[in-house]
User: Fold this.
Amino acid sequence: MNKTPYPDDWADIDTALYNRSVKLFNAVKNMLSVHLELHADPQVVLEGDIFLFNHFSRFETFIPQFLIYEKTGAYSCAIASSEFFDEDTVLSRYLKHVGVFPHDHERLFALLAGQILRGRKVIIFPEGSMVKDRRVIDKRGQYSIHSRVGNRRKLHTGPAVLGQGVEAFKAAIRHAHKHNDAAQLRQWKDALQIDSLDQLIAVANKPTLMVPANITFYPIRSSENLLFKSVELFSDGLSLRQSEELLIEGNIMLKNTDMDIRMGAPVSPCCVWDWRTHYLMSKVAPGIKAIDDVFTLHSSPKNWRQRLLGSYFIKNAQCSRDQYMEAIYANVTINLSHLAATLIMHYIGEGQTHIEKNQFYSVLYIAIKHLQNNTAIHLHRSLLNPDDYSDLLKAANKRFDYFICAAKEAGLIQDKANSYQFLPKLLAEYDFDSIRLENPIAVYNNEAAPLRTVRDTLIEAISEFASVDSNKLAAWHFEDECRTLAWEKQAYSNSNFHEINHLEVTVADPSPFFLQPEQANGIGILLIHGLLASPAELRDYGEYLAKQGYTVLGIRLKGHGTSPHALRDQSWEDWFGCVQRGFSILKAHCRRIFVAGFSTGGALALKLAAEQHHEILGVIAVSVPLKFVNSAFMLVPLLHGTNKLVGWVSAFEGVKPFIENNATEHPNINYRNVPVRALYELRLLIAHIDELLPGISTPIQIVYADQDPIVSAKSAPAIFDKLGSKNKKLRVINANRHGILMENIGGTWCAIDDFLNELRVDNSLEDMYDCTPLVAHVAKQGTVAKKHL
Assistant:
């Protein structure tokens, strides 16, 4: 059947319909589980003309124009398959009126150029079809993609042709303006529906910019979903292609998928023009009378200059195509699955049949730390937030576990006790419409392949794994603690938290600190701050200890030093996780360690002591809040339970999520607004510690103020009596302040010095005689006896 030819003109965008479509899109977007994130310089979005995207799913083709409208208010045109316009249907009329053009329209380039000159944006997917396998580089290292009609094919030069054509027409406008051809300028102004000649000249003087952009989905899932089941229920049978696309697309939309859209630096379509092209352009410009003329220079030239310029345009378009495709693939958002897949395929290429689990986790972690410092690579936020990757070394990472589970379900790897075995299916060839289901590892590897730096960094990490020392790992772990603080600040700084945040007056630096003395004594001290505070609370004390030769680490408990909302989202187990990480960092530098904690930090120090680490020489617990002066604290569990109930049955956060604390002793460090959840977690921690006290055998010093306005003076004796330690000391400080450690009230620091020095002597004797504590005790008594004699 012969298709009805398209009209030479095409309907302009119906702005009212376009605006309604944007509102509908926003409503639908809020209902979906896909998380859209646009990474772009606002100025680039504003000034760009032709936006180029890679093509992995059908869903993504609707997204860019709406995001651009949100950012700039500009309308965008797009190109769709001609099959949508074969008949006069509601859909074809809708597409036509929201700026969509059929790909085979004879005047496609001229129509799109006219839209650009009017200030519209144009969206193009230069791959021309979905690249399901993400393989865009062939064996020769050239850009090419799968073709359904046979061999691999080059990517389209259409965007470069369009961009050069727009620039050529702008050159004609500038020529007419230079020679005062007012009649021609008015004709173009009217044809383009531009308001004034001044505006036409301004358009001609603006460089045409192509913006390469990359869309990355993470993770890629292939499990059954609601969309697939619904279509399957009402259809007589789905083809492999239909089933595969419903599974992949349905999971993108319905199962918490991240969709990162990253725009690169603009590319000029004329960036590859040489002096010959510019010279010919100046000679051809006077003969251009309509937009169509610039797109027929090669096919219907009027003279030898036009023919030659047309041939230059074709060659230039091919060079320009390679540039913007390289930029598109360079903007992929690298995630953990990319790294794991690339590492697996590298090992297979080296002839290995398996990888040891410990090596797998460690190499990935090392590579992540190096890639974080590579500004040429764009990392997924999960590789920038230590909460998402730092537990790789513990073999407990959720994102990695999902990757491994998907690989095992696909029959690509086998999980052995201490290794992952690579199965033959990893190297099998798959149909283009099944590879996303059968071999997601190959898809991830292909997507990251254009970025050679990723593979090179992983190979370097393999070499480094064999020789990396504990100090290097400790330095990375400490950097992760600092990154966590920065990430937390950013996450809780948006307007949703402003009501509470703007009431806070903390100004002290909440960063964790690591202090190495000029002359180290070989002993480390881990400092743990109190509830509502930050490491700044113990910084001065840390400096004091460092001057005595101690290596000091002041760890930050999660939720502190950023926002009360951040603290509200933490459990006491989260706080203790910070303590454990701090202890691990310090162990890399010191064979023996003291642990000192203030208030809640003291309780956490006791919890660490209960784990019986042989590196711990002793624990100092200051002002531990076993009991409180204010009896209202007993009502915290009830208030927290009410908050949770209200949160479950309504959109409100609770009856009273925060309690104002105007009596804080250090407002420059402590939160003024106390999350009820945090107080509840403290209650749980205290109850837990109370059960552990009899089992603690580590030497302990309990320090407290006899007139503490917050913690009951009965707390310290109660803890002391329950402690199982044989070497335990109770020190009372005459003070009516809670912060006795920070303020060094009543000689608190000196009182702790006595305890530290006593244990240091014992430890020195143990080292001297290389014996058990009991033998060292006997030797010490003998040394004392000799002194008396």
